[in-house]
WSCD1 protein (Balaeniceps rex), 577 residues
Amino acid sequence: MAKAFFRLQKFLRRTQFLLFFLTAAYLMAGSLLLLQRTRLVIQQGSRGTSTNQALPVPDGMAGVGIVDPRTLQNPHPGPRLLVGMDTLQEPALDQRHSPRWLVSRNSELRQLRRRWFHRFISDQEPMQTAGFKAMKHTAEHKGTYVGCFSDDSRERMLKGAVFYDLRKMTVSHCQEACAERAYTYAGLAYGAECYCGNKLPATASKPEECNSECKGEKGSICGGVNRLSVYRVEELRAGARRWRNVIYRGCFRAPENLTDTFPASLIQPNLTVEMCSEFCSKKEFPLAVIRGRECYCGYPTRRFSLHDGADGLLCSGTHNASSTAKGKYCLVYQTPVQDTRCTDRKFLTTKSKVFVALSSFPGAGNTWARHLIEHATGYYTGSYYFDGALYNKGFKGEKDHWRSRRTICVKTHESGKTEIEMFDSAILLIRNPYKSLMAEFNRKYAGHLGYATDRNWKSKEWPDFVNSYASWWASHVLDWLKYGKRLLVVHYEDLKQSLIPKLKEMVEFLNMTVTEDRLLCVENNRDGNFKRSGAKQKDFEPFTQEMKDLINRYILTVDEALRGRNFTGLPREYVPR
């Protein structure tokens, strides 16, 4: 009996080991199969929608590239489905392209697109260069340390310009940024904030109160809590033009009383642009206005909004009264000084009762819209994601939980019923898909402010990217139109062309009121630090005819959907291409 029991026990032990081995082999095989399937889907460049349904196309839009294989067998008029161009090469099997298969395939591709989009946020973080144009950690612009001074967040002592770098701030970086903009002093606070100005703060503090280590340089001090480490900035190196950042704004009709309109003035024989710009920069004003021998400094205001420019011929010739139509017109220049009337921002003091989304397809200008909204309202915007590069450059809402309701609105690129219905209302930002696709491809390979190389555009990544992302552009808008509870549709092109009216509309939608001068300040600093730098290719056309056929049909689908919901259709410039 004991011998039989021993044999049974030995058999069970072997069976247990065998079952364990088979289970491990099964799991490994399943993982390999899933990885292979994912790779195959990406290589095919499939274009699923972001919801569990395909995109309807109006009957009259037949053409190359966007037809369901079933319609080749049934040419009768009727709604068709926007499916991937690769399906034209696949067998036209009803079972293969059944609605159930599309539901599964579209859901899977949606997850793939999300992973593809989000994995680059962390990879691109070291590549971001917003804020500072020359950020090399060198021995240049060391400057002279002046001392530790107290600072009040409600009334800044150095208020010529403000920069943030919550990851890489150094004393050298701050000094370089202020020197580039012709400021005399550079002040650092909280280890990551840089302030520029031409006047020393009034109240000195004890040296030990400046005790915050610089985020980008161990062992260096960058101010403290409400304390500024102030340096006198050295002149730019020999050969550099100090006034290269002076921008000509145009010829404008002079206000009736210039001395009431502009806080500072100077009368100088043989007045030059450099003289007037230097004078206004030292006074910390963003505008230098020249009329004959007179130089005026100030801000854009309701009296002088810079909206109605005059013919440049009225201001042609030398800067004298006779050549400017007997003093009725003046020349306006933008100095290197930043308009800081609208740079103060904070979190909401009480939780917002309305949960608002700022939704857009990637590359549609969401970051720029956030910049405009934050500076117009004075409140931070949040984000469904965490982009460390944006947080480092001053978007402090990036680290706040997106459902905290402490921000005025929340950035999102998501679509789909569940994601959309979490929000009470939304600003839906739409941009030309051709421009959006290029912008997102640039961000993917060169960060928020760079351009992809010629090698990137010519690689197989670009056609795969277009095939995957083009349908996402369309389905993103269609989903928000279908599931959004309360929408304000804003076209990127309209916002760029008519900034003040459109920004007013957005601010009112957010139940906020702002002054006209604050909106003019936003307009005066409209680009912020979010304009791409580097060499931009001229007359560059990365889209093949096949890509254009695909995108144009998505454009027509979205345009029809917008008009069907009584919204303004897409701008004419979207099609034809």
Notes: The CA atoms of residues 84 and 554 lie 12 Å apart.
